Amino acid sequence: MKNRLTALVLIAMATSAGFAFGQAQQSPIPENPGVQPQIDILGSGIATLDFANQSGFGTSGFATNGSINLSDSALAAGFSERLFRGGIGSFVAGVQSYDFTNVGAGSGLFTNQMFLDFQNKASEVYLGRTDSPTGQLVQFPTLRGDDLVDFTMVPDPFSNGQNIEENRTSNVAAVVLNQGLRTFENFHVQHLIDSAGLGTGTDLNSFGASYQYAPVPGLESLPTLVSYGIGYEHRSIPNAFGGGSDAIYGGGEVNLRRSITNRLDFRVFDAYTFGNSTNSISSFNDSYRADANAIAASIRYLNSPFGKPSYTLALTAGYKSFQKISGANEFALAFTAAKRLGPGFDAIGQIGWFHRNGALAALYGAKDSTVLQLGLSFNFDSTIHQSIGPRRSPMNILYHYLPN
Question: What is the per-residue DSSP string for 285-323?
Fold first, then answer.
């Protein structure tokens, strides 16, 4: 009897070992195979033919004279489940093309979304890689989110400038509280991507908090005051690179004409950084670390007959100056147009002009540069097994329906 029992135990152990070596690691708690998560799939494709006499939009000085620009296209998927006590748990993963995609260098794709999220009615916790809480307090109406990156967001002082997406993406752990899903307080720690090799590795190197007010999604054309927010961030830069840096930033959006069919809106954002001792610019990383004040503003007209977008025209301007670097400043203008050809499919165009002085002109290789972009864009989203509404879904992230 004892020998039989021993044999059965050995057989069970061998079988378990076979499964362990033959299958992927199982979750700590076995899942019910009959539970189907909600699946949200989203894609955003954009391609433009660029003509520039010097640097183009968001390219850190790389010439784009007569090139095809594939950057900022993205594909993301989200998976969500209703939890036992009424909350929602979700996982989102996504990739995005960036400037090096155009030349085939590197991997060609950047992982811009890879996080898990827990939410209930009044609070939320998310952990992983996603939009930085400082990345885009205000969404500006340029063709790509990083077109005027020097003015429209708090820069990543650890970036080497080769991947502009590092300025709006980070590894973040955040707790978000809300009051009626209209006002939001975000408390977070971050690892801002250290591509410049300042010595932070994968350590946490930034922390801060922000307050934002957001409208009801889909009703942005009705109130006069659409959204606003303010935030503070401390970046732990090593002393060898000028020491710690602080950032105070804020902005908002108002409707100059409240209309569902002929909307006119105005947006503004300002970021003031201080505390770092960098007093010269010889690299793009220097320009991100040095104390500066950057402001951006835009005015946009949106024509939407019968409540469906038809075309949009926008003018965006930015100005940046440095506190400790005499004569270094830059100014930019971007005129943007888009015409809806069908559901989610647009013909697009943009012309931009940059003027730089002092050390910035030397860094970019010219005082003035102009770029013309003509192309197409397509956005789509699809939901499978729709049963719940996770707030930090791929669609809400792309269209900034929810504060970062």
Answer: HHHHHS-EEEEEEEEEEEE-GGGS--EEEEEEEEEEEES
